[in-house]
Amino acid sequence: MTDLLEQTDAQTMPDAASEQAPLIDISGLNVYYGNFHAVGDVSFDIPKNQITALIGPSGCGKSTVLRCINRMNDLIPTARVEGEIIFHEQNILAPGIDPVMVRRRIGMVFQKPNPFPKSIYDNVAWGAKVNGIRKGMDDLVEWCLRSAALWDEVKDKLDQSGLALSGGQQQRLCIARALANNPDVILMDEPCSALDPISTLRIEDLMRELARNYTIAIVTHNMQQAARVSDQTVFFSLGENRMGTLVEASPTRELFTNPRDSRTEDYITGRFG
After folding, report:
1. Domain assignments of the chain as residue spans, ordered by start
2. Is residue 25 within a helix (H) or strand (E), and if so which, with residue range?
């Protein structure tokens, strides 16, 4: 994992050739929970500096796949993951790859805002301190909060609890916390489902802004949201024995206007799901 960390210690402007290559290449991904085959043979790419939306009916494996990308399924005792996820030319599912190192480079924002019961400042600084960063903490906290479009709202109350913020502010605080580790990728699992429409739009605007410097993958049940914010959409459905299967992955405009598979068309037009 050392090479991966050395390659990604700083955000750099990619050249034209690297922009065309996927940052993450998922191939033959299968996920089991005990004897239950939850996700079957999923393969797709996640392009760099774009937003990829994962959509589909409940229980089709969207969040399961997302959690594989930063090894969160390792925390589930009954989970078993097979296949490859290539990130910076390394299979991050391979034996010997440290999942903690993976999570430093592939951050995650969850469905419900989950700030720590600490001050706003400490919420952002905590991850950086755990990773050994000590110098320039004030500047780092400000930069992360500015990047998460939250600084102007909290700059005079950094010592107040993050739990005192509104739901939308808490979610942006969680995004700022994820940015503190300087990730390449930000995974978002239904980040707006617990928010009001105004807060949702602010998070969507923030995602588009962040995609200039980060690669984002988002799970959403809201097809309108996927159409608004994403560059690529991946549609999952339920196969035999309720196994999640990938139906198609296409540029978002193409998937919503000219889907290749009839199951995709049925889902986006409301005929099932």
Report:
1. 2-268
2. strand 22-33
Tokens of 266: 């049925």
Residue 134 confidence (pLDDT): 75
Q: What is the mean pLDDT of residues 95-106?
A: 93
Checking if the pLDDT of 94 tops 80, the result is yes
Which strands make up the sheet holding 215-219, listed edge to edge? 90-91, 79-87, 22-33, 36-47, 244-251, 232-238, 51-55, 215-219, 185-189, 106-109
The answer for residues whose C-beta is within 8 angstroms of residue 219's C-beta and 6 or more apart is 53, 54, 55, 62, 63, 66, 188, 189, 190
Residues 47, 217: Cα–Cα separation, whole Å: 10
Separation CA 211–CA 196 (nearest Å): 23
CB contact at 8 A, 232 and 55 = no
Both tokens assigned to 112? 């419900």
What is the mean predicted confidence (pLDDT) over 149-164?
97
Entry field: residues in the chain: 273
CA–CA distance from 181 to each of 5, 75, 141 (Å)? Answer: 12, 20, 11
Question: Alpha carbon of 59 to those of 16, 29, 129, 221, 242: distances in Å?
Answer: 38, 17, 37, 11, 8
Q: What is the residue type of 223?
A: M
Note whether 72 and 79 are within 8 A (CB): no
DSSP string, 43-84: EEEEETTSEEEEE-STTSSHHHHHHHHTTGGGGSTTEEEEEE
pLDDT computed for residue 196 by the predictor: 92
Q: Which fold is adopted by the domain 2-268?
A: Rossmann fold (3.40.50)
Identify the pLDDT of residue 20. Answer: 53
